[in-house]
Amino acid sequence: MRRSLILGGIRSGKSSLAERLVTEQADPVVYVATATAGDGEMSDRIRRHQLRRPPQWGLVEEPLALGALLNRQATLTPPPCVLIDCMSLWVSNLLHAGDTVFVRERDSFLAALSRYPGRVVVVSNEVGLGIIGMDPLTRRFADELGWLNQSLARQCDRVLLSVAGIAQTLKG
20 to 30 Å CA-CA from 156: which of 67, 138, 149, 170? Predict the structure, then answer.
């Protein structure tokens, strides 16, 4: 399957599941990290993710311009399998960058994803099972991520939900 979306809650096993999926295919792998290390705890999270990845995987750290990144990767022969982890942090980055950047980068990413000739595995938090946020920014984050997840699910051949480390197939 060319495009996969892996959804789950915090500590649900979604990143580990995505990493296992990309090791099951033969193409070179590029891991795309959307996180930025804003504090010590996030630095520790990033370090744990790095230690778990095979050394032969490529790494691109891209907090905003995922569409441009996919377009660049598409020019490689063969196009690598791209694992993007994760949409939750990416949406947060975009919201902090402002509405113009948010709309431009979201639309660019969705368009580039639809054209990408290789495999792509996207990791995202499922926000549709939680409570309504107490403040406008939290509500907007949940709305935007939920709408993005729906757009990704339409484009993806396979959608999996990870719950307590167990994958449930939603599509494909």
Answer: 138
